[in-house]
Amino acid sequence: MTFAPELMTAIRARFAHVETCPFEGERIFFENAGGALTLNAVVETSARYAAIPDNQGRANGASRALMAAIDRAKADMRVLLNAPEGAIFVGESGTELLFRMIRDACLGAPEGGVVLGSTVEHPASRSAAARWAEVTGREHVWVKHDDATGQVTPEAYAAAVTPEVRVATILHTSPVTGMAMDVPAIAAAIRAEAPEALIVVDGIQHACHGRIDIAGADIDGYAISPYKMFSRHGFGVAWASDRLTALGHDSLTGGPVGAWELGTRDTGAYATLSDVVAYFDWLGAEVSGASDPRQRIEAAGAAIHAHESALTDAMLFGTDNLPGLASLPGVTVIGGADNPAREGLVSFWAEAVPASEIVDRLNEAGIRTHLRKADHYSGNILEPLGQTGCVRVSLCHYNTLGEVRAFLDAVRGIL
């Protein structure tokens, strides 16, 4: 079920460059997995804080205001993530934060054992786990994902996990297949055999779709790239459990105990996180009568999922008189057309036209998609399928059914 027209208009009004590219003019934006649209409030907040000359930790009103903004952002993120305990901090990027948390887990875990991950993961977590497994003299065990569904299941983890697992990684949502993994169930499968394992989750692709519940998943680390969650480039945000924080990690000698951040961070980056949380809260109030902020955020996540599911269903199965991708001759949808794990993303290839040409011709038609190639980013998904590339069409909740219709009409003409 899609958003009502009035609400859709209000949603789109809160984002920058919804209908036009500042360089190429009018376009439909179906490249959200590469970076979501930015909230207008984030643009304004970034400019406002960039002009402030004062530093944090000083004895003046401006400095105190900066510290208050950081504290407020951390409190807001606790609500969004449902993370009442643990540390929230920012770093260079989501990828950098995954590397740091996985490194500290590998260095701080008891000696011996193995590092467990899966073949569906983005190279951010796969590379970090591979490197630090090697450095610490551990085997890196891979749980095989299902090529047919584009995901890895709790059962697959359960079959691979042993009491020797010291560190484990989980991908929340794949940026290639678009499928979400059952993080709580996978974490439970790991804990059943290795209760002391340190578990780190890549939430970068999942975050913009809402429905993050750290308290409901027995994990130790979670990383997000805010530019994929309506904020901006240049930083990442992470949550770490008290157990992970207590391990040794890079910090200033004599500095605050448990501090993760190195050097002075951008207050404006923190402040934009409050803008993002305020947006989820606003949307939740629009779609529910909830009075509690966390309940409103949960309602927003459910509404986002319903809207995006309606759009991807239209893209796959057709709408009005337009046939969907699943019925076009020679088209293969990664993960299968009928897959309830899908989160706002459809990747496909066509026998008659190379994926690169489809992306180029869609771009000429004013529809922004992306070519995923069998490289270090997507080879783990595409190579087992015997493909050198695919077209990734990634949606977000500010996209409309009319934009899907335009996409289907363009694809039909190309194929």
Automatic annotation (TrEMBL):
Domain Aminotransferase class V: 28-407
Annotated protein name in UniProt: Selenocysteine lyase/Cysteine desulfurase
Coiled-coil region list: none
SUPFAM superfamilies in the record: PLP-dependent transferases
Superkingdom of source: Bacteria
Pfam families per record: Aminotran_5
Annotated GO MF terms: lyase activity
InterPro entries for this protein: Aminotrans_V_dom, PyrdxlP-dep_Trfase, PyrdxlP-dep_Trfase_major, PyrdxlP-dep_Trfase_small
Keyword vocabulary terms for this entry: Lyase, Pyridoxal phosphate
